[in-house]
């Protein structure tokens, strides 16, 4: 059966799958932009993980987990919701399998009079805000437009880990003579592909592009005093970039990391402006959401809470019940100590493909079979392709089936009008608006903590197979010398929000009082987000994860 993967990246990687005896034989199918199709190393593990032997459960009066069938768990959950339908419910919905069917959950909980939905998200909302503000929509040109460029500039786009099919296409472009420049505070594996890697100080990409634009198109950018010191670039790197940005021949690819600063939308907008005023808009790309251009269902939502205000509301005991579907906020959202306290004090309902660090606090847990178990459709983040997926196994309930099952018991309409067409008519039209220039937030004498995606595991799910992969605090040799620590030393990373412990790895990946931890990892003690605060980005729709500042010291355990 022909299907596609909507996990993690998503590049909408297409494949042929045959399932026999619970085992999956997965073979790559054709991608229109690649000569040799492939599936990434994670895909087979996704199948095994989603059909793993995880039991649904309902806690009994003694607060013990009582395993039960999916059907019983759905029934018990529905009865609980029926008894408490007027109470304040916080509904946190993750990306799940990134398909349209996650809207079934919105439809279900829109029928509860006191349900609160989350405004904004942790992934791509800030960049989407900037693109809609600048162009009226979020649209990427065809990836094949890259063949028209002489230079391809990646701004914080770690394609090797986050978009392996784009990475393969970039390798093809390089073989065809394209020059690739990679700008990032972290020297990731993508630097191996680049003709030139340029390290930039975190959150200063907007300053760089504004200064470049002023040099190339005077009057449209900004002349910035001390630009080299602020960005960390050498004068030859700045001049090199100025020569790279050519009229109609330079591609700009924006990574998700750009928007994870408090000035994230401003950064994206200045790169957009540089592309427009150098006649390179047809070569400007951003990783749009997998549902951004789908015709979304019209679902009324009476109550909204901003994503940056969730943990404060939790701490105030504002909500009576928590419902978490397809996400693991204890690992991915800021201030997990406040979350855990809230989940321990109030009833928690979890629906997920596996048992997570959030699910352990659940009073009702329903195991979902996820992507492989349901028909669905979505778009690629990066490529202009839509995919329609057929279920390859229906023995375990899908997200959609669970939502509809609860709705049926509650006699609530959870049906959706599945309009599979996307808004193809929308085109980018630049609005020449007044654009201020925002500098990054900095706390002197502290380390900035950056987190990054790893190629070998899911972002929000700590898969056992890769649980011990690269669980380090990466630090520069200069900063390690100043702390008097060596490889393998146990480090305590802390601030007023929390702390975690992990081993030290001295690396050239980072410099200048910046440390890196691969995100959402189970460390020796805690997780990276233990020290993250709920700081909003300038769009007020995302979280400034990269504005996390910490103290670092040797620990004795």
From TrEMBL:
It comes from Flexistipes sinusarabici. Belongs to the prokaryotic molybdopterin-containing oxidoreductase family. The keyword Cell division does not apply. Residues 73-364 form the Molybdopterin oxidoreductase domain. Residues 448-532 form the Molybdopterin dinucleotide-binding domain. This is Molybdopterin-dependent oxidoreductase. It comes from the Bacteria. One of its GO terms (molecular function) is molybdopterin cofactor binding. It holds the Pfam family Molydop_binding. InterPro entries: Asp_de-COase-like_dom_sf (IPR009010), MoPterin_dinucl-bd_dom (IPR006657), Mopterin_OxRdtase (IPR006656), Prok_Mopterin_Oxidored (IPR050612). Keywords: Iron, Iron-sulfur, Metal-binding.
């Amino acid at each position: 059966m022909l299907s596609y993967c909507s996990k993690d990246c998503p590049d909408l990687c297409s494949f042929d799958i045959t399932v026999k005896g619970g085992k999956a034989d997965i073979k790559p199918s054709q991608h229109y932009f690649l000569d040799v199709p492939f599936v990434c190393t994670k895909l087979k593990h996704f199948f095994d993980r989603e059909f793993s032997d995880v039991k649904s459960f309902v806690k009994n009066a003694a607060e013990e987990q009582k395993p039960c069938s999916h059907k019983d768990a759905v029934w018990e959950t529905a009865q609980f919701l029926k008894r408490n339908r007027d109470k304040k419910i916080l509904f946190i919905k993750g990306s799940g399998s990134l398909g349209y069917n996650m809207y079934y959950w919105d439809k279900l909980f829109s029928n509860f009079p006191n349900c609160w939905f989350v405004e904004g998200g942790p992934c791509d909302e800030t960049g989407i805000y900037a693109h809609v503000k600048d162009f009226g929509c979020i649209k990427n040109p065809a990836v094949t437009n890259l063949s028209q460029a002489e230079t391809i500039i990646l701004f914080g786009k770690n394609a090797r880990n986050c978009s392996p099919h784009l990475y393969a296409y970039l390798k093809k472009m390089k073989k065809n003579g394209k020059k690739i420049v990679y700008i990032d505070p972290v020297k990731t594996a993508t630097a191996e592909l680049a003709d030139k890697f340029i390290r930039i100080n975190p959150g200063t990409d907007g300053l760089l592009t504004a200064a470049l634009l002023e040099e190339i198109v005077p009057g449209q950018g900004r002349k910035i005093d001390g630009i080299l010191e602020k960005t960390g670039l050498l004068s030859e790197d700045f001049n090199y970039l100025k020569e790279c940005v050519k009229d109609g021949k330079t591609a700009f690819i924006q990574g998700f990391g750009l928007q994870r600063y408090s000035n994230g939308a401003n950064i994206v907008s200045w790169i957009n402006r540089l592309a427009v005023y150098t006649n390179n808009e047809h070569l400007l790309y951003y990783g749009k959401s997998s549902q951004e251009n789908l015709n979304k269902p019209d679902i009324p939502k009476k109550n909204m809470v901003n994503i940056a205000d969730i943990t404060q509301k939790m701490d105030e005991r504002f909500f009576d019940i928590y419902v978490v579907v397809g996400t693991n906020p204890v690992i991915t959202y800021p201030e997990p100590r406040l979350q855990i306290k809230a989940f321990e004090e109030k009833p928690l309902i979890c629906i997920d493909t596996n048992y997570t660090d959030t699910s352990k606090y659940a009073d009702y847990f329903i195991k979902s079979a996820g992507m492989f178990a349901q028909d669905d459709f979505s778009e690629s983040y990066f490529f202009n392709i839509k995919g329609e997926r057929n279920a390859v196994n229906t023995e375990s309930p899908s997200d959609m089936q669970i939502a509809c099952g609860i709705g049926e018991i509650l006699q609530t309409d959870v049906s959706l009008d599945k309009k599979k067409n996307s808004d193809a008519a929308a085109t980018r039209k630049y609005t020449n608006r007044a654009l201020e220039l925002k500098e990054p937030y900095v706390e002197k004498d502290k380390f900035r903590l950056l987190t990054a995606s790893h190629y070998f595991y899911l972002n929000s799910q700590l898969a056992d197979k890769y649980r011990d992969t690269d669980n380090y605090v990466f630090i520069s040799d200069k900063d390690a010398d100043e702390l008097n620590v060596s490889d393998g030393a146990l480090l305590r990373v802390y601030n007023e929000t929390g702390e975690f412990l992990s081993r030290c790895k001295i690396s050239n990946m980072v410099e200048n009082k910046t440390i890196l931890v691969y995100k959402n990892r189970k460390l020796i003690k805690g997780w990276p987000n233990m020290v993250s605060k709920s700081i909003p980005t300038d769009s007020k729709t995302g979280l400034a994860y990269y504005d996390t500042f910490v103290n670092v010291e040797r620990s004795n355990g």
